[in-house]
Amino acid sequence: MAELSFPGLPFRTKGGVHAPHNKNTAHKESVVMPVPAMVALPMTQHIGAPCKPVVKVGDIVDVGQVIAASDAFVSAPIHASVSGTVKKIDKITMPSGDKVDAVFIESDGEQRLSPDIKPPEVNSLSDLITAVRESGLVGLGGAGFPASVKLNIPSDKNVDTLIINVAECEPYITSDHREILENSWDVLSGIHIVKDLLGIHRVIVGIENNKPDAIKALKKIAYNEHDPKNEIRILPIRATYPQGAEKILIKACTGREVPVGGLPSDAGCLVMNVGSIAFIARYLKTGIPLVSRRLTVDGGCIANPMNVIVPIGTPIKDVIKFVGGYKEPPYKLIMGGPMMGIALPNDDMYILKQNNAILALSAKEAKFSEPTACIRCGKCLDACPMRLQPLELSNAADRRDLDALNAYNVMNCMECGCCSFTCPAKRHLVQNIRAGKALIQKAKREQITSKGGKK
Amino acid sequence: MENILHVSSSPHFRCNNSTRRIMLDVIIALAPAAVMACVIFGMRSLMLIGVCIATCVLLEYVSRKIMKRDTTIGDLSAVVTGLLLALNLPVDINPLIAMFGCLIAIVVVKQMFGGIGMNFVNPALAARIVLLVSFPSAMMHWVSAAGAPQAAAIDATTSATPLAAEPGVYSYVDLLLGRCGGSIGEVCAAALILGGVFLVIRGVISPIIPCVYLGTAALMSLAVGLDPLYQLLSGGLMLGAIFMATDYTTSPVTKWGKVIFAIGCGVFTILLRAYSNMPEGVSFSILLMNILVPHIERLTTPRTLGWVKKAKGAKK
Asked: For residues A327 and A321, is the Cβ–Cβ distance under 8 A?
């Protein structure tokens, strides 16, 4: 195998947009929120199979105790984030609109740690994968893909590069930025654990150049006797949205392209969010599973924007009350960032594992305009980081033209929203393309069932 | 919280750009050429510009009303069409003929094909060609510009356009400053270049089409034995390359499509100028390439990130 080199400068990526950064909370210390009176832990807080509750109503639970689990490969167990009594197991509405079962725990305020908690013993990769599975870790950057599945690289894939995602390209969000500044040693030891156990000799920390203090903090501890084999590099990348998208980050850090329909491992890369990697280090030290997380609460309608560390399952209402409530009635409440986050119908929802921000945006910030006719300016093509043709895709989706959708590679769209952001005619491009992707998926499912029926 | 919040699919941020703003930028970019038209050909140019803009806006409003569709005059595209058409006319043309041109541009070419973004050729250019074919003598009656070399200081004498003139009559400086005969907006190359630079800086147009168009035209001129710089600065080439060929709706959206489109425009322009009897090299070549745009786009679909050639064979 050829010697792997480290890029001095990031590789060129195309497209992207200059969304306003609005990183108002980057210089504020995160605050630990007091334990809420009640938490709700829905059974799907990850991509994959939903968990089944393993506790009954009336049970007394401790912090870190498993309350739901699943045997499926792609899944992650859920742990009690407060100590107290299981009040009810009831359906709640998720941000996506689905109704799923959730375990409601009434807190007793003691935050007793479960007696089962002890640091796991990790000597090999399979130990690590088991431990990560038991910790309930999902990708903390927003997608919520179970981390144990990610680490379980198929044997036919040759992964030689670990990329740590600190791009944090979404406006407002600073939770990863704060993670670096507050827990830089956890980040570093997490990197060492994962790279050593996976046998990876090249680690690239992709970090947007709008975080000079975080770059400095990481360089200070990563570039010396703590990295004797000299395998870690901090790579400042362009601060444009969406540099943190997995495929774009891989391109910027290694120059490789993930093949259409492929996974990062097809390009020899493993991409992990900085929060996840720091959590792994903490978990191996303490054995406390994923019961709390840092998230950014910001937006024009929030009185006192800041990063808070909250138990998973805390009602959003309580989080907002803790940061001083609303300055003015919000126009939109968003779970996640303004470019890809989900708009919530009300604040009667709960913090999920993968939830990195809650934004309350004013009508001025979250402008909504009626779409007008496409003038074919081509700005969506220039903005598309995947080099697709959003206007053609959107028109094809409008016509429900599956052939055209396939011809223009609709499934390679990652729904970053750059096309809609940049469109001067305010057309709902990515929204239409999403509908187009759903059409293709539906057609595929129907094809499979009809084939199955014939046999 | 009592009431339900606004919910929509992401992204929740939009940039500040709008169709209206783009059109306003184009109008600003055309302003130097319009001012120079008034300076060179007198206040009658201003009247002509006013008549064309007013007619285009009115016709757009009326035709949208008749078709029972939303009014679109607010996006200023009709103003741009009117202004461009006016700049493409000789100064002493009968205003009624100009208004007929507006009718062709707005009603026939633009609204009958579905309004903004749907026309398959550039409305102002199509109108110019229709007028030229319908009223050839009025459209080719070139009043001499103020300060033009052969026409002393007497207004309203006819003079040849630089392309029809004997070689050596006009210097490059005459052409840059518009001291020659021609349509009111096309004579002053300097004003047009200024407008083009403004559009590129504002990000309204990509420099690909004007640069490749002009570059190809220069090379072609050399090839057929014409003076390249003289060709670039004379006739409607600057106006066409900067403002007509870059029309969003009728030019390709893909990068390589733009290149092919501009090369085609440049080649046909010089071929028509060198070997055709009609004075309309620029208009006809852009119109021709407009019609080819869908095919050019299909040929130049960009390679999506991660696309591998092998997969193409496997999938199909």
From this structure: no
A134: nearest Cα among A146, A152, A150: A146
Q: Is residue A192 part of a domain?
A: yes
**Closest CA relative to residue A328, chosen from A299, A352, A354, A355:** A299
In a domain, residue A6? The reply is no
**pTM for this entry:** 0.89
The verdict on A20 touching B (C-beta cutoff 8 Å) is yes
Q: Please spell the DSSP secondary structure of B120-162, one letter per residue.
A: SS-HHHHHHHHHHHHSHHHHT--BPPTT-TTSTT-TT-B---T
Sheet holding A203-208, edge to edge: A232-237, A203-208, A161-166, A269-273
Check if the beta carbon of residue A80 is closer than 8 Å to that of residue A87: no
Looking at residue B310, its pLDDT comes to 54
Q: Which residues span the domain enclosing A394?
A: 379-454
User: Does A417 contact chain B (CB < 8 Å)?
Assistant: yes
Whether residue B33 contacts residue B188, with contact meaning beta carbons closer than 8 Å, is answered with yes
Which candidate, B289, B293, B291, B247, places its Cα nearest to that of B268?
B289
Phi and psi at A89, nearest 5°, equal -120, 110
Q: In a 3-state reduction of DSSP, which class is residue B40?
A: helix
Residues of B within 8 A of A339 (CB-CB) are 10-13
* Helical packing angle, A390-399 and A429-454, nearest 10°: 50
How many angstroms separate the CA of residue B52 from the nearest CA in chain A? Answer: 22
Residues 205-224 (A) with a CB less than 8 A from some CB of B: none
Q: Distance between CA atoms of A389 and B252, rounded to whole angstroms?
A: 12
- B305–A342 C-beta distance less than 8 A: no
pLDDT of res. A364: 87
**Residue A226 pLDDT exceeds 90:** no
Q: How confident is the model at residue A454 (pLDDT cuts 50, 70, 90)?
A: very low
B168: number of CA atoms within 13 Å, CB side?
0
Contacts B17 to A, Cβ<8 Å: 379, 422, 424
* Cross-chain residue pair B18–A378, CB shorter than 8 Å: no
Tokens (6 digits) for A196? 């050593």
Q: How far apart are the first and last CA of chain B?
A: 53
Specify if B158 maps to a domain.
yes
Residue A166 makes CB contacts below 8 A (sequence gap 6+) with A176, A177, A180, A205, A206, A207, A208, A211, A214, A274
Q: Which residues pair with B143 in a beta bridge?
A: B158
- Looking at the structure of chain B, the number of domains it has is 1
* Partner residue facing A387 (CB), from B9, B14, B302: B302
Residue B207 sits in a domain whose CATH number is: 1.10.3430
Rounded Cα–Cα distance for residues B74 and B91 (Å):
28
pLDDT digits (tens, 9 = 90+) for B281-308: 899 999 999 999 999 999 998 888 888 7
Looking at chain A from residue 327 to 356, which residues have their Cβ under 8 Å from any Cβ of chain B?
A: 330-334, 336, 338-348
Domain end point (choices A361, A394, A415): A361
Residues 377-406 on A with a CB inside 8 Å of B are 377-379, 381, 385-389, 391
Closest CA to A68 of A86, A49, A55: A55
